[in-house]
Amino acid sequence: MNQKEPLSKRMKLSWREMPFAGIMFEPGSSVEYKTGDWRIERKPQIDGEKCIRCFICWIFCPDVSIKRVPKPYKKHIESVEVDYYHCKGCGICAAECPVNAIEMIEESTDVP
User: CA–CA separation, 82 vs 101, rounded Å?
Assistant: First the structure.
């Protein structure tokens, strides 16, 4: 097997071709895979006016889809954004937000 081949091609092995105990071609990461496509119903929308920049949503997000960005807003030097390419719409961020600044909206709704 050629290590220069794309990962997607290298992973298409039959069970007979798989080495004993499997093999990892690269360290595990969802960065390469846009797993947000799995989201089917709702997605988070952050209200910048309500958000107090406590970053609890960032801490609790299991998919690392809440990003801290150096985008000043009023007296804050950082803001939060949602990476919709990886967000699966679980709603943990909205449930943990102490000021209800995150609303789970319909998937079909455009987010500014």
Answer: 13
